[in-house]
Amino acid sequence: MLNFFRRFTKSRFGLIVVFVFLAVIALAFAAGDITGIQANGGGGGGGGIVAKVGKHEITDREVRERIDLFLRNLQRDGQNVTMEQFLAQGGLELAVDEMINGAAMVEFAQQSGMQVSKKLIDGEIASNPAFLGLDGKFSQKQFEELLSQNRISPITFREQMTNERYANWLVNRATLGSQIPEGVVLPYASLLLERRTGIVGLVSTIAMDPGPDPDDKVLTAWYNSKRARYMVPERRILRYAMVKPDTLKTRTAATEAEIAEAYKKAGNRFAATQKRTIELVTALDQNIAGQVAAKAKAGGLTAAATAAGLEARTLTALEKPAVVTQVSQAFADAAFAAAPDALVGPVKVGPSWLVYRVTKVEEVAARTLDQARPELATEIAARKLAEAIAALRQSIDDGVGDGKTFDEAVADAKLAAERSPALTAAGANPDDPAFKPDPAITAVMRAGFAVEQAGDEPQVVPVAEDGSFALVALERIVPAAPRPLAQVRDRVVKDYLVDQALIKARAVATAMIAKLEKGVPMQQALAEAGVTKGPPPKPFDFKRQDVLGPNMAPYLQMAFSMAPKKAKLVEGPNREGYYVVYVDTIEEHSAASDPAAIQRVRGGIAPQIGPEFARQFIGSIRNHLKVTRNEKAIAQLRAELTRSGSAR
Predict the structure, then answer these.
(1) pLDDT per residue over 579-597, tens digit each?
(2) CATH class for domain 3-179+609-644?
């Protein structure tokens, strides 16, 4: 959910762009992914002040807009994060903190005498692919239209690009020359060689008695505390009209007149011709080519080439123009005049010497109009179909640009309008797990989730590589909300009982720790606790480097963070219970004599050094400047966001 956001803020450029420059980065450097950008506050604006950095004020309105934009971008990517989830994971604090970082860098840069010239910003705008016209050059009209569509003024856009440039200059400079001495790397490399032994047991939820089913009061209270578990992501109902090549094929069939005209203009395409297959060896030295020719007379050309350390190649069933393209005109003339199976060469062609043999000659008869008709009809129909699709798309696009509604555009183009069920950004229907949408619906839903609100201008979007496209309009937004208890009662009862069993499993596992640390064997401790179901205890003996990775079991992660002769517990995935981990021995090993291990660790640490320098540098900037946070205003903003459930 927000984990990738947290990881991003730890990267060099993540420190710059998250929230603070999100709008300008998304538009200026994502070239084409420009939907969903909303006006930002630039350098200030109305609303309560949540923080001050020098003379710069950060308002609650700016924070709202950044959060709103962030959530919409997540939704476009198919990640349906609610405001409740965002706030619960510290999103507001991250937003405010990163906006302070951005403002601090701009303030520090300006105090230090840095200046971003108008010429530099003009150059970046002019070279941005998003602002290029059909002629491949910068289009002022395209620039203004894109900013207008996304509710960004040119002044604000330039200000944000200027601020982003300050941040890049400062952070890039701070992270140059970050080298890691071996004394820093060695302890980490040695950790990889550390060996641990022990045993792990599982106190499974299935081994616990969850107790009686809850009554209505208990179940309702429990459901209200776990509403996020039953959240249905935001869905949207779209109206759309598909245009596929198949629907236009009847209008684009080739006529007899078109076929006859194409045949007439085909030149020698359907005339009688000859194809030849030629075995060819190329050498840079005449003597070597002569040796190949001599040996080829007694055997094959391929074997002769191999003996000389060369490689023969075959030009298979080519007409003369193709041979001209692949070799040369002179060679083609000679090869098509040579007798079949005769060995020719060495002959000089350019800087090379060639030895070749014509191994096959195929005479291709001329084709009459009737014989060429199927091929020409297919080509003409394909060309007309591509032109018809392009013309129809342009016509619909122009109509929408002139203010036509979805219904008007569909009627004028004689299309069939359809209505989607309430679907997520990924095209799934939470109310019907068996629902399998047409693959084209995925592109349609992506476009629908990029629209701000119902009633906005319809969008023309490509849906397949064959030229298919769709006209899409947002009809209704179904906000993210938990399913009513009545709809999921059986599931909630089951989840409640599992949670009760999990609580008991934790209590049992906790009680086992003292016994294990006193020397009671794991199997005995489980038996005394009444754990009769679940897998048996499992001994382990691993080096840290053997178990590192994204799929590392939770109990092994715990085992490598404990002292010897100690026990700890860790919750298993999917509420399966609690693992009780006991570490018996720890063997430490030095990596001083293992350069490969040191180099691997250095390679893993190196990407973290630059971001760490950047964080420390930004922290120093904040300490240098006068930064104040209005905690009361931040708390008030949190309350408002919690109540509204939206950053809008």
Answers:
(1) 999 999 999 988 888 888 8
(2) mainly alpha
